[in-house]
Specification:
Oligomer: single chain
Mean pLDDT: 74
Strand content: under 5%
Distance between the termini: 131 Å
Shape: rod-shaped
Number of strands: 5
Structural class: mainly alpha
Order of helices and strands: HHHHHHHHHHHHHHHEEHHEEE
Radius of gyration: 45 Å
Low-confidence stretches: 1-28, 30-35, 582-591
Strand order of the largest sheet: 3-4-5
Largest sheet: 3 strands, antiparallel
Helix content: 10-25%
Length: 638
């Protein structure tokens, strides 16, 4: 005979006795207002009814209502109700506190005043309110006697189902049955054999018969599986610690479970040693990264996290706010050096990690916060296109070192800007970048190019729209003999530049310098004489200054109209301070023979100019010029 049958018969028997007693004493169901709870225990209920009535009342309170009110006293009857002192929670102060009613609800069925079944007596079988008119959902947010998901925190927390007595499984099964939409992926989808009583670990609800609240075996350790343990562990490491460690400590050394997290994660204790990479949105979705963790407070179990500067529970654990951190698996990477919620890198970020970043590095690190264009994953993180307005800094031909992601130019070539608007004004960039001397952006923008604070501030469109002209600075290599090279922003001209003979250059945007006449040559060169007060590295010296001898047209010996090597080599040594080549190799390849190109209309016959290491700058000619035969013997230039 079931407890319900025993209790019902006993109660009906008691009721019959009560009717007879009422006829004799003209009293109600009980002994009147002077009756006590203890008297009702013995007079009108079977033995052990306090334990047995919970399950019966959970199914129906109709029998109880024959004499009792669920929450209100029948006026003047003196008959106890469910909330009478020493019964249910009506007389318990602070019952809304989860520490009280939540812990009581988790008690096992049959425990006086405890279990989910006891909640159903007043709050209805589906917890919609019932006789109490108090729905569980009004506080919990879900129509259940527990908080909303995830209701699976570590065992040290009250907000977890892991400490609920398994005898409550029958009530849990109302919602968490096989195939239920509120059951997580991987939990039983098919009911257990007919007649099987709902249980936590027998395939009738969430967990299988393995005794663990998750899958076991290869699927649990396979990172390509959608049931990989890393995917779930990242949602809340404290949940794992409930079984696989010691809650409230930095330990993941095994607790009630037979496996310790630290047995595999030997270096970090509960996660991969490399733990900083950017997450992905594609299957299998697992990347060794804390960035998409579900509970960052779990980091505080070991690290100095969330509160900058505190002493970490695990002193050996790196601080979340380190400027950089390296281990045996990876080189130093930036952490949250600027504090909680700030960028994990310096601002302004002018280091090589920014200026030389590759696509792979961007995808693995930067992309967690920044987008190349459009809207960044983190709103406060600017997209690359805010500053790199011409092209992606990661695209071929416009990547690190080429400057073309802002200063548009020929694809793949560092030829400088070719546009008509700042910061891509063409100017004389193409002319200079096409010279035999291999110049670069840094030639004229020395130390203030990509990676410098000056460039960062000038190009930072987040602060203000950049304005022309761009900052200019020369290295000492291009200083003229007369002084340091300089740029005048107002006139867009340079002065004291060695390759221009120290003279003021034409306007960078509108000026020209072309031709083979004397005026063109003397715009950069001068014939040095005894009266020259400002000598330059590229002065015409030696017999150039002999009156009436060699002060003829420059093109006689330096005919730049010719397509000879000499003509092409005119601008070969601009990156040497003396604007000349040193004799270190084959003499025929050295200045000044490189720039000798005789005009055949003036210089006839065999035409050669020789120079050796011992006669640098004093070479001799073998030619016929103006009808005169010259030999190299005793006819050196100087």
């Amino acid at each position: 005979m079931s407890h319900t049958q025993t209790w019902t018969r006993g109660l009906l028997g008691g009721l019959c006795g009560a009717v007879l007693l009422g006829i004799l004493s003209l009293s109600g169901c009980g002994h009147g207002a002077n009756g006590t709870v203890a008297e009702y225990y013995g007079h009108y209920h079977p033995a052990n009814w306090i334990n047995d009535h919970q399950a019966a009342a959970a199914s129906s309170t109709a029998t109880c209502r024959t004499c009792h009110e669920i929450s209100l006293l029948k006026a003047g009857s003196g008959i106890p109700n469910c909330l009478t002192s020493a019964c249910h929670h009506g007389s318990t102060p602070g019952w809304a506190n989860a520490d009280l009613h939540g812990a009581r609800a988790k008690w096992g069925v049959g425990t006086p005043g405890g279990s989910f079944a006891a909640c159903q007596i007043c709050h209805a079988k589906d917890f919609s309110g019932g006789a109490s008119a108090q729905s569980c959902a009004s506080c919990h947010g879900v129509p259940a006697p527990h908080p909303a998901k995830p209701w699976r925190a570590s065992a040290g927390s009250l907000h977890t189902h892991t400490t609920t007595d398994p005898s409550n499984a029958a009530v849990c099964a109302q919602c968490h049955y096989p195939g239920s939409p509120v059951n997580p992926i991987g939990h039983p989808a098919n009911p257990a054999p007919a007649g099987t009583t709902p249980g936590c670990f027998n395939n009738t609800m969430c967990h299988g018969n393995v005794g663990a609240p998750h899958a076991l075996g290869p699927i649990w350790t396979d990172p390509t599986s959608n049931a990989f343990h890393g995917l779930q562990a990242k949602q809340d490491l404290n949940y794992c610690q409930g079984c696989h460690g010691t809650p409230g400590t930095p330990k993941f050394d095994g607790g009630s479970a037979s496996t310790a997290c630290s047995s595999c994660h030997t270096a970090a204790g509960a996660h991969s040693t490399t733990w900083y990479q950017a997450p992905v949105a594609t299957f299998p979705g697992y990347v060794q990264s804390h960035r998409n963790a579900g509970n960052f407070t779990a980091c505080n179990d070991c690290h100095d996290g969330l509160v900058k500067g505190r002493t970490a529970p695990l002193p050996a654990a790196p601080s979340c706010f380190s400027a950089s951190y390296a281990n045996s698996e990876h080189a130093a990477v930036g952490c949250h050096a600027n504090g909680p919620g700030a960028a994990p890198h310096p601002i302004p970020f002018i280091g090589v990690d920014h200026t030389t970043v590759t696509q792979a590095q961007f995808d693995g690190n930067c992309a967690a916060c920044h987008a190349v264009s459009g809207t960044s994953p983190i709103s406060a993180a600017p997209a690359c296109s805010v500053c790199h307005q011409a092209a992606s800094p990661l695209a071929a031909g416009s990547g690190p070192g080429t400057c073309l992601s802002c200063h548009s130019g020929p694809s793949g070539l560092p030829a400088g800007p070719t546009g008509t608007a700042f910061p891509s004004l063409a100017g004389a960039h193409a002319k200079h970048m096409g010279l035999l001397t291999q110049l670069s952006c840094n030639t004229c923008h020395n130390g203030i190019g990509s990676g410098s604070l000056t460039h960062y501030n000038a190009a930072n469109a987040r602060v203000s729209q950049p304005t022309a002209p761009a900052p200019v600075a020369f290295g000492t290599t291009f200083n003229a003999q007369s002084g340091a090279a300089a740029f005048a922003a107002g006139t867009l001209t340079c002065s004291n530049v060695s390759c221009h003979g120290g003279k003021t250059t034409p306007n960078w945007q509108t000026g020209t310098l072309s031709g083979t006449n004397a005026a063109t040559c003397t715009s950069c060169h001068q014939v040095r004489t005894g009266s020259t007060t400002s000598p330059q590295y590229n002065d015409a010296t030696g017999r150039h200054s002999n009156p009436g001898e060699h002060n003829t047209a420059c093109s006689t010996c330096h005919n730049m109209a010719l397509t000879t090597a000499g003509a092409r080599n005119h601008f070969k040594y601009l990156d040497t301070q003396a604007v000349s080549g040193a004799v270190t190799g084959t003499p025929a390849d050295q200045f000044p023979s490189d720039t000798i190109a005789f005009d055949p209309a003036v210089v006839t016959g065999a035409r050669t100019y020789t120079v050796t290491a011992s006669t640098q700058g004093k070479g001799g000619c073998a030619l016929t010029c103006h009808g005169q035969d010259h030999s190299t013997s005793g006819n050196t230039w100087n």
